[in-house]
Amino acid sequence: NTQAHSADEVRRLRGDMLRFPPVLLQQCLRGVVQGEFLAEGKIEGNPVNIVQITDALGIAVRLMLDGKTNDILKISHQDTLPEQAFGPGPIRIEEVFFDYRVVEGLRVPFKYVMLYEGNRMGEATYSRYVLNPIVDGALFNRP
Q1: Taking CA 44 as the corner, what is the angle to CA 26 and CA 103, rounded to the nearest 5 degrees?
Q2: How is 42-103 classified by DSSP, letter by letter?
Q3: Fewer beta carbons below 10 Å: N end or C end of the chain?
Q4: Would the pTM count as exceeding 0.85?
Q5: Phi, psi values for residue 69, rounded to 5°
Q6: What DSSP element (H or E) covers 110?
Q7: What local confidence, expressed as pLDDT, does residue 82 receive?
Q8: Residues 6 or more apart in contact with residue 116 via CB below 8 angstroms
Q9: Are the C-beta atoms of residues 21 and 75 closer than 8 Å to each other?
Q10: What is the arrangement of strands in the sheet containing 46-54, beginning at the earlier edge strand?
């Protein structure tokens, strides 16, 4: 329910959903948003490719891809957060993905870290993924 949130919070939530990697890449493939290859590089001797996609809200999102597997290693963009959180102006937000494993033929990251201006703000480690689970419709019934 978005009614309990300010317009800025709703914009931020919408932007986060649009920048979710599968959504962002799917929109790029469909021509809804524009993407461009920026550079090749190396991190710790491993090849990486850097791609920039401008999302549906006009925010430039950089994706760093593993040069061998095309796994997404890092996503970064700039956004403006409420002033009381970090001060005025845009800040750099980075999402870093680690420990890719194959689950039912799909490579997925089992570790995720979020950084704001280089400071660790969140982290998640997954023990397993369940792809396309069957969800009981009763779960959505109102109590």
Answers
A1: 45
A2: EETTEEEEEEEEE-TTS-EEEEEEETTT--EEEEEEEEE--HHHH-SSEEEEEEEEEEEEEE
A3: C
A4: no
A5: -105, -15
A6: strand 106-116
A7: 60
A8: 81, 86, 91, 92, 93
A9: yes
A10: 34-43, 46-54, 60-66, 72-80, 90-103, 106-116, 119-125
Instruction: For the beta carbon of residue 36, count every other beta carbon within 10 angstroms.
Output: 11
Residue the block writes with tokens 């994706």 = 63
Average pLDDT, stretch 122-141? 92
Q: pLDDT (tens digit, 9 = 90+) per residue, 86-113?
A: 666 788 999 999 999 999 999 999 999 9
Euclidean distance between CA atoms 125 and 103, whole angstroms: 15
46-61 per-residue burial string, b: 16 or more CB within 10 A, e: under 16? eebbbbbbbbeeebeb
Query: Which residue do the tokens 């986060």 mark?
Result: 16
